Amino acid sequence: MKKILLFTMAAAVLMASSVTFGAQAPGDALAVVERAVTDAGYAFEVRTALMAKAREALEQGISPDDVTALVQKGAEQKMGGQSTTLFLSIAVETKRQGLPERPILNRIHQGIAKGVPPDKVLMAAGQVKERLGAAAEVVDKARSQGLKSGNADERDRAVVAAAVALETGFPTDDIGKIGGLAAQKKRALSQFARAVESMANLKEAGMPRNLAVQTARQFVILDYSEKGMARQEIEMFSMRRSGWSWQDAFSRLHTGGERGTRDMGSPLQHESGAGGVAGSGGALPRKRL
Amino acid sequence: MYKERELLQRLLDGELDESEREQMLKAIEANPFLKRDYKGFAETIQALEEAKHPLAPPYFTAEVMRKLPVLAVPFWKKAALFLFRPHIFRLNIATIAFLLLAAVSGAVFLMGRGTMQTAALEQGKANTVMVTFRLQAPGAQSVALAGEFNKWMVNETQLSRSKSGEWQVEVPLRAGTYAYMFVVDGRTWLPDPDADAYRDDGFGSRNSVRRVYHL
Question: What is the DSSP letter of B186?
Fold first, then answer.
């Protein structure tokens, strides 16, 4: 009888463990890492340190796919085990500080793929981490001021959006003001994140910074949904391609505008309408060249 | 004496016919020793018949067998015995309840897992948009796409070449903004001339940017 109970409990533990781990279990990832590290022929100390860091990264919740990809690419590019250990360290440190690690991993993956020297990859990853830290401060401040808090994923998304905005050239103050306004208006964290994403997208497309900030403010004030903001963004790109100035495109956002036949006056109309998708060039889901 | 004892035994067992029975009863009446024995046996039989008859528990034989000394047998034989010998299990209510709970939990888990995986897959498909990337590179031997959507893997997303020399690939992407580059012949990194925007790559160059909307 005891044997049956033990079997049952073991089965329960196995089932529970299979729920915890996704497509690639940390155990599998460690085996892949170990193979890559062994094949790379690193010195014993380097190998030990890299394995320990890989284990720590997995324990911190960094995706097994990312950990294995970093180690394998590092070995393929002959970057040296110490560099790979440092790459994992900065990702672990970022995660430990409660910051989203995805942008750091993206920068590292990119650097390795492009054959950038490891010290420059590390420096670039460090800059991304600094921006994420600054972005997190802004986001958390807005949350403390009354922004409707979302879950951890939504917070990460908002932090990444703010970090991208910082990288695009917006000062912390601009993002902080959008956050303060969103908090004052009791908007959702996801709305704030989307407004900041639009702000960065518009500036990246050439809109002057102040106008991009004003656009994001209008999105918050007029209580646009995420899809509503996306539609407006597409519409503004389309207008710009049609020869409108950014100022005119912005004016249409909250006045109804003077030119053309598009009706952009009400956020509600944009929620239900399909305007802004067709003919918006690069903004189309399926790009047409 | 032996003959009388045998007859007494048969009398008690009801095996004598009527005449034998009468003769025997007379003989008992005449012999005080026989009479004492007959009375003692009759009372014992009556007491036994009136007494309760407890049944041996069903596992009694198995318990007795289990307590017998075990001979040294090889492991494979033990295993075969364990597998093929009939077993008698004693289960209490708590154990039965636990086993039932484990079975039901397992079934629910397996069904739920399948449903969740299917739902996640469907959700993932529903939230993605097929985005086409194109590059005019008639002289290229191979063109790959590397970007934030594939961990900048140079060999993961290969473009196909058309007769006109245009390379193209469709990639399922969720809504968002993605940095990417084309990799021509496995070594030359090229920006997309038709990108939605361009962004500093952090290493002194510029990546192409594609915005994906899911409305």
Answer: T
Q: Are A130 and A124 in contact, with CB atoms under 8 Å apart?
A: no
Specify the range with the lowest mean pLDDT, choosing from A10-19, A56-65, B90-99: A10-19
Alpha-carbon distance of B173 to B168, in angstroms, equals 15
Contact A115, A77 (CB under 8 A): yes
- Minimal Cα distance from B212: which residue of A? A285
3-state helix vs strand vs coil in chain A, percent to 5: 75, 0, 25
- Give the residue, A129 or B115, on which the prediction is more confident: A129
Q: Band of the pLDDT at A280, cuts 50, 70, 90?
A: very low
Q: Tell me, what's the ipTM?
A: 0.78
Predicted confidence (pLDDT) at residue A274 exceeds the cutoff of 60? no
The rounded distance, in Å, linking the Cα atoms of A240 and A262 is 14
H or E element, residue A56: helix A44-59
Q: Which helix (H) or strand (E) holds A91?
A: helix A81-96
Q: CA A72, CA A50: separation in Å to the nearest integer?
A: 12
pLDDT digits (tens, 9 = 90+) for B4-61: 888 888 888 888 888 988 988 998 999 888 889 899 998 998 898 888 877 777 778 8
Instruction: Name the pLDDT band for A283 (thresholds 50, 70, 90).
Output: very low
- Domain coordinates in residue numbering, chain B: 1-85, 128-212
Taking 90 as the threshold, does the pLDDT of residue A151 lie above it? no
Name the pTM for this structure.
Answer: 0.66
What is the number of residues in chain A?
A: 289
- B36: three-class secondary structure by DSSP: helix
Q: How many whole angstroms separate alpha carbon A68 and alpha carbon A89?
A: 14
Evaluate whether A205 touches A165 at the Cβ level (below 8 Å).
no
What are B's interface residues with A at a Cβ cutoff of 8 A?
89-91, 95, 98-99, 102, 105-106, 109, 113, 129-134, 146, 148, 151-154, 175, 177, 179, 189, 194-197, 199-203, 205, 207, 209-215
Q: How many CA atoms lie within 13 A of B171 on its CB side?
A: 24
CATH topology for B128-212 is Immunoglobulin-like (2.60.40)
- Helix or strand run (H / E) with residue A111: helix A102-113
Q: Which of A239, A157, A241, A147 is nearest to A200 (CA)?
A: A157
Find which of B159, B181, B203 to mutate to test the A interface (most A CBs within 10 Å of its CB). Answer: B203
* SS3 (DSSP) at B20: helix
Q: Give mean pLDDT, residues A155-183.
A: 95
Nearest of A272, A280, A285 to residue A249 by alpha carbon = A280
**Can you spell out the DSSP letters for A195-226?**
HHHHHHHHHHTT--HHHHHHHHHHHHHTT--H
Q: Which uninterrupted H or E stretch holds B63?
A: helix B60-67
**CB-side exposure of A82: number of CA atoms within 13 Å?**
4
